[in-house]
Structures are given as structure tokens and as C-alpha cells.
Design goal:
By secondary structure, the chain is of the alpha+beta class. Helix content is 19%, strand content 35%.
């Protein structure tokens, strides 16, 4: 009988193992707050419940601080920047945009591969291999039978197959959006956009989280996680206005209509300002680069990272994006140095962030011309000006000398003799200054200048 109990216990344990091992979406993506709260919201159009199973075999799950994050991308870490057009009125669409910021000297080419920028030197120097990740080198036939791509690894974390629209093989990143107890999966390149209708979204602040995976053979590797708060308001209309005050006297919320929400107050970066921009003088200025120092101040918590996005003057076309860690004291005063390729006007978006918040500021910067030919022309102009001034002074001195060199009768007056000697001495000194080569070699001749004058 005792053996039977052991056998039944073994069967129960074996039956329970798959349940314990299987992960769900809220286990992977909903670690910041209880999933029960998130699942109280209404269904979003096109989104799925985070109660679905997560395929951990294809999409491994790493906790924050796992050492594997350091090797998830070749050459450094990838940063994901999440923005939205929040706040949005209830019933309208709110759009979220995720942009990936690669390590220095890396970019995505037209084929979706990650390549090294030409003539760009990072910590490892210039790379002989032009590719960071050459995804198109994989044979299409290896993806599945008959080259259709209908293989078990071209699927999302919940098992749904990738949409096979034109050019889908060039999209090598998987984005998983998560909010309100629901998720949305999207295959894309280094930038994706997702729109959500807020008709079924509870009024107030909500949290959007995004996890990004990259293609890795027949599996996927997590490379970045990002989150941001968005806000949905109700139209004023006939709804009564209510004012609620939180015990912290520095925080209050205006609520329109009737709703219930949970608000977590955390210390964050409240404000960031660029107080000064300085052109950095280089000993050997390059023809295609300029360095600008931005002196930045902030209020609130101390930032741990600074990101700079350099765009065209309309702030729409991104030209360069750089993120780097910072070590700032309690005064929150730091200098950010950035390089600009060529002269012109640029839009600079500067973001300071820590583990819980982000603060953004923007400015337009004008970069002067660094053409060496321009500097040479300025130097030549200065030399010509100095030469013309020297010629002018010489001509005036000649005219003065010739005018006073003419013979004038000398009266036998001691005063006139003294005056004549003074004038001659003055002319001789002037001549010595402006015509040093014409002076006599023998200084004794100076005593003969006024010989015969009594």
C-alpha cells in the first residue's frame, strides 16, 4: 500500500511539472504590478489576453540583472526609446513609436542587416567585417519546406505565424507590447509604430511596456526592454469636475468624470534644461566634423543615462542617436559633448533618464562652417591687410622725410641753431627707424652733420 502512495505521488508530481514550467505572458511582461489588476480592463481591438502561454523555448526569458544581457548584442547594448502622442481623449487613437538606438558605429542598412558605418572608429577600432549581423546571408530554403517560410521558428511568442507580407524576411526584430493585461506582437525593423483606440481604456495614467527580441538562427534573443506612461482623459462636456489631492502637497490631479485608478508616486526627473552651448575648438579641426558642448541642468532625481538624438531642422528625420551612462552629483549639472557632421542647422533632442523616469528637452543648434579653405582665405585676407598698412606707413614716412630734407637758410641765432639741430636729430631718428639699411656704418660721421655752424 505504501508503494501505491509513492507511485500516485510521483504521477501527481509529473503531471504538475508542465504547469509549473509553462510561462504566460503576464509572467514575462507584467512583473511591475499584479496581473489581476491589469486584467480588469476591457478588450482592446486586435490585442490578446496575457493569460496565453509564452513559448520560452524560442523566446528565452531573462530577469533584470541577468549576466546574459551583456552579451545579447555584439559590440554593446541596444537602447529602445518609446514615445507616444499622449495625452489622448477617450475614444481617440493613441500612437506608440519604438526606435532602437544601436551602439556607436552601427546602423541598419536597406536590406535589414546591421552594418558598421564606414570610417567610424569605436572602442574596438575600425572593423574589418562590414556586418554586425548579416541576416540576409541565411538561405531562404533553410527557413522551411519549399522556401515558404512556414517553419516552426517563424512564429511569435504565442505560436502565431509571422505575417508573410512583401519584404517580411528583412524584418528581424520582434516587438511585444503589453498594457492593461493584454499584449500585441509585431514583426519589424529598427523602428515600429502601433496605434491603440482608447474607447475601452480606463481614464487616467496607464503603463505601456515593450520587450524587443532579435533573430538568432532558429531562435530569438532579448535585446531591450522599455516602458512609458500614457494618459487618457475624458472630454469636459457635461461631466462634473472633481479635484483630488494626494497627501504629498506637491502633487495633485484634476479628474474629469467618474473613474477609479491606482497611482504610484515615485521620485523621478522633473525637468531638464540646456543652459549653454559652446563650440569646442580643436587643434586640428576636421573638414566634416564639429564638436559642441551642451551644459545641462535637471531637477528631481539624479539621472544615470543621457541620450541625444540629432535630426534635421524640422526634428523629423533622425541623423544620429547616441546614449551613454552619466555620473552626476546632487547639483545635477553635466556637460554633454556631441559631434556634428558638417555645418548647418540641427534639431537636438536630449533625454535624461533613470530607472523610473525620463525627461526631455529640445533645441536648435547652428554649426558654423569648418572648411579649411575658408580658414586659409581668412588668414590670407589678414596678411594682405597687414601688408597694405605697412606700405602706407612707409610712403607717409618717405613724404615726411623728403619734405624736411630741403635746404633752408640758417640764421646766426643760437636759438635757430639749437632748433635746427633738434630737427635734424628728429629726422635722423625717424630715418633710422624706417630706413635702417641706409645708415652710415661709422658713428663718428654723426658729429660732422652740423660742421661749420658757429
Amino acid at each position: 500500500m505504501e508503494c501505491l502512495y509513492y507511485f500516485l505521488g510521483f504521477l501527481l508530481l509529473a503531471a504538475r511539472l508542465p504547469l509549473d514550467a509553462a510561462k504566460r505572458f503576464h509572467d514575462v511582461l507584467g512583473n511591475e504590478r499584479p496581473s489581476a489588476y491589469m486584467r480588469e480592463h476591457n478588450q482592446l481591438n486586435g490585442w490578446s489576453s496575457d493569460e496565453n502561454d509564452w513559448n520560452e523555448k524560442l523566446y528565452p526569458v531573462w530577469k533584470r540583472g541577468d549576466m546574459r544581457w551583456k552579451n545579447s548584442w555584439k559590440g554593446g547594448r541596444v537602447q529602445a526609446v518609446l514615445t507616444s502622442d499622449s495625452p489622448a481623449l477617450v475614444g481617440s487613437n493613441i500612437t506608440f513609436v519604438v526606435n532602437l538606438v544601436f551602439p556607436r558605429c552601427q546602423k541598419e542598412d536597406a536590406s535589414g542587416n546591421i552594418v558598421y558605418e564606414k570610417n567610424c572608429r569605436n572602442e574596438a577600432g575600425l572593423s574589418a567585417d562590414p556586418y554586425v549581423y548579416n541576416w540576409t546571408a541565411w538561405s531562404e530554403d533553410s527557413d522551411g519546406e519549399n522556401g515558404t517560410g512556414q517553419s516552426h521558428h517563424n512564429v511569435f511568442p504565442d505560436g502565431k505565424p509571422f505575417p508573410h507580407h512583401p519584404g517580411w524576411r528583412r524584418w528581424n526584430f520582434v516587438y511585444v507590447f503589453h498594457t492593461l493585461g493584454q499584449y500585441f506582437q509585431k514583426l519589424g525593423r529598427c523602428s515600429v509604430r502601433v496605434s491603440v483606440n482608447t474607447a475601452n481604456v480606463t481614464l487616467g495614467p496607464q503603463l505601456m511596456e515593450v520587450t524587443v527580441y532579435r533573430r538568432h538562427g532558429r531562435a530569438y534573443v532579448p535585446i531591450a526592454q522599455v516602458k512609458d506612461v500614457y494618459v487618457v482623459t475624458g472630454p469636459a462636456g457635461d461631466n462634473p469636475l472633481g479635484l483630488s489631492e494626494i497627501p504629498d502637497e506637491n502633487c495633485q490631479i484634476n479628474r474629469y468624470g467618474h473613474f477609479q485608478a491606482t497611482i504610484t508616486i515615485v521620485e523621478g526627473i522633473l525637468e531638464v534644461n540646456i543652459i549653454q552651448t559652446t563650440d569646442v575648438l580643436m587643434l586640428v579641426p576636421g573638414p566634416d566634423s564639429s564638436l559642441i558642448d551642451f551644459v545641462v541642468t535637471c531637477q528631481g532625481s539624479i539621472p544615470t543615462e543621457v541620450c541625444t538624438i540629432i535630426s534635421d531642422p524640422t526634428c523629423e528625420i533622425t541623423q544620429n542617436a547616441v546614449c551613454s551612462p552619466v555620473d552626476v552629483d546632487e547639483m545635477c549639472l553635466l556637460t554633454v559633448r556631441r559631434a556634428f557632421n558638417g555645418s548647418g542647422t540641427y534639431c537636438v533632442n536630449l533625454t535624461l533618464g533613470d530607472d523610473t523616469s525620463l525627461a526631455l528637452t529640445s533645441t536648435l543648434i547652428s554649426v558654423p562652417d569648418r572648411d579649411p579653405a575658408s580658414s586659409l582665405r581668412m588668414a590670407n585676407t589678414a596678411l594682405i591687410s597687414v601688408g597694405c598698412l605697412a606700405i602706407f606707413v612707409t610712403v607717409i614716412s618717405l613724404l615726411v622725410y623728403k619734405k624736411h630734407k630741403k635746404y633752408k637758410p640758417i640764421e646766426n641765432s643760437p636759438a635757430n641753431v639749437v632748433g635746427s639741430k633738434g630737427l635734424s636729430a628728429f629726422l635722423n631718428r625717424a630715418k633710422a627707424v624706417f630706413f635702417p639699411g641706409n645708415q652710415e656704418k661709422d658713428p663718428l660721421l654723426k658729429n660732422q652733420e652740423f660742421k661749420g655752424v658757429s
